[in-house]
Amino acid sequence: MEANAPQIVVLDTGGQYTHLIARRVRELGAYADVQPSNTSAAELRTRKGIIISGGPASVYEPGSPDIDPQILRLGIPVLGICYGHQLIAYHLGGTVQKGVRGEYGPAQLSLSCDDALWNGVENSQIWMSHFDVVSSIPPGFRLTASSGVSGIAAMSDPGRKLFGIQFHPEVVHTRFGKQILENFIFGICAANKDWNISQRVPVVEEQIRAIAGDRNVFFFVSGGVDSTVAYTLCLRALGPDRAYGIYVDTGLMRKGETEFVRGVFRELGAKNFLVDDAEQEFLAALHRVHDPEEKRRAIGEQFVKVQERILATEHFLDGTWILGQGTIYPDTIESGGTAKADLIKTHHNRVAGIQALIDSGRIIEPLTSFYKDEVRAIGHEAGVPDRFVMRHPFPGPGLAIRCLCAKERAGVARAADGVLLPIRSVGVQGDARSYRNILALDEQPNEHLAAQAAPALVNKRSDINRVIATCGAKARLDDLSVFEATVTKPRLDLLREADALVREFCLQTGFENQVWQFPVVLVPVGIEQAREAVVLRPIQSMDGMTADTVLMEPRDLERLTEKLLELPAVSAVFYDLTHKPPGTIEWE
Ligand code: XMP
């Protein structure tokens, strides 16, 4: 929805940091977008600067991401980062070699001469993540910095405005990374400060009015940040009579969620916010379903049915309506290696009516230019309360994928390292999904277990993908059993209760701000009188693609465990020690 081409383009060679580079440039105040690496020089002629991202490939491999070499002759400043640095060397007559060994992690930058990139930069820590190296620089270039393994850490040809750096300025571990990007964007490219989120809201509202014309907009709002902010913008742009929000209560929501969402929209002045109570339908769809992928499929199909029913009864398919969606920038980009495939495990099927609206262009997506943190800032600007815009992500299939099931009763097995629970959870190793048992340790969670023992155990044993520690239990681990269970209302209510208890506790202690997400999982493991266990899964993450376990203060954890064990059906409280990979954030 943007008229002018952004000043800075980041060419995507498949690196996991591509979007991070664009975000950093925007944070510095210049509008940047991401385009495929091979975008033609002709298309980039109006840009003020070009950044070629890092990526996992090797320049000599057939089929590896490439650039249009003409971009190096446009006279527009180019900064190659990591693989981008190697591409510049490769195209201009330097050489790139397989590294003797890869270099991952911190290294020391040693500046060799003055350079426009180095204004205000000192010899300091940089972050490396590469295998190949530039082994000789192209004619016309000079070495501007060196470092341990890679030797040529940076090179430039100031006359042609070409710059290459082997390290990653976009990550916080590179001490002067921000300064280097700032030098490139404002010093070398002479870009203007044209990106300020607080000024975007009126622009986006104007765009919404232009697209909608005299038609009304309806949204399926999920209660997530993106759809809520998108709907709020339409509400502001078109007025409450013309913006409809429909929220499907699947019965798989957290405690108080529907009331919370309703309250937020009431505060925002929505008149046409409808809640569709579909709990019975979803519970029926999940009746006797045990398998995680089947659960997702059942929920997805049920969503389609509910949406079809709503589209028909509310007459949303007639010509006076268009569909609003909360699509954000990273969702719109098809790029080489930055696959989102494992982030969303199974997509909801597309409703035929919604597909028809999309095909006929009757769709409005106000947030397609923005990153998540920008969506939050826009939401804040548009008056969405902070307790809403700052909330943790929550998966579409809801608590169903945190409510584990079992087909039959089974005993646990004592192994050398702990107790093997005959129940399976999903994990991810390499690019592949795993579905394996869980090893429970008799110990309390601690630094050593999280950092060393748990990862070593998952590596060693091929029958597990997760290790959990025991916070407290009403019986010895050896006396626990797995009980037959599916997703039922009583189990969901118990999980809602446990989850709400954890959330309230974390808000009180401030732990909420130390984690990116904190799933609470219900597992049908226990003793006859208390057949369920609660697993705590607090993690830190940047974007959900990888995650680290976060430990809680032992005294806080003890108090929380006591509270959870007061729930009569709960036999034990566990703490997930598994990073992602090899575990996924969610258990299913
Ligand atoms: P995993 O479990 O794959 O989760 O490590 C990564 C992030 O994605 C969220 N997630 C989902 N979100 N629909 C969603 O909208 C889904 O089906 C889904 N599955 C996982 C998860 O909560 C975490 O933030």
Short description:
This protein is 29% helix and 23% strand.
Structure explained in plain terms:
The chain has 588 residues and is α/β, with parallel strands linked by helices. The chain folds into 3 domains: 181 residues, 3-Layer(aba) Sandwich (Rossmann fold), CATH 3.40.50.880; 197 residues, HUPs (Rossmann fold, 3-Layer(aba) Sandwich), CATH 3.40.50.620; 174 residues, GMP Synthetase, Chain A, domain 3, CATH 3.30.300.10. 29% of the residues lie in helices and 23% in strands. It is built from 15 helices and 29 strands. It has an 8-stranded mixed sheet with strand order 2-1-3-4-12-11-10-7, sandwiched between helices. It is globular. The two termini are 36 Å apart. About 2% of the residues have low confidence. The structure holds xanthosine-5'-monophosphate (XMP). Xanthosine-5'-monophosphate (XMP) binds next to loops.
Question: What is the element layout, followed by pairings?
Answer:
Layout: E1 8-12, H1 18-27, E2 32-36, E3 49-52, E4 78-81, H2 83-91, E5 95-97, E6 103-108, E7 110-111, E8 125-130, E9 133-136, E10 142-147, E11 151-157, E12 162-165, H3 177-188, H4 200-212, E13 216-220, H5 225-238, E14 243-249, H6 257-267, E15 273-277, H7 279-286, H8 292-313, E16 321-324, H9 329-332, H10 352-359, E17 363-364, H11 372-381, H12 386-389, E18 410-411, E19 413-414, E20 419-429, E21 432-441, H13 447-460, E22 464-473, E23 481-482, H14 489-509, E24 520-523, E25 525-526, E26 532-536, E27 539-540, E28 548-549, H15 554-565, E29 570-576
Parallel strand pairs: 1-2, 1-3, 3-4, 4-12, 13-14, 13-16, 14-15, 16-17, 21-22, 26-29
Antiparallel strand pairs: 5-9, 6-8, 7-10, 10-11, 11-12, 18-23, 19-20, 20-21, 22-29, 23-25, 24-26, 27-28
Helix pairs in contact: 4-5, 5-11, 7-8, 14-15
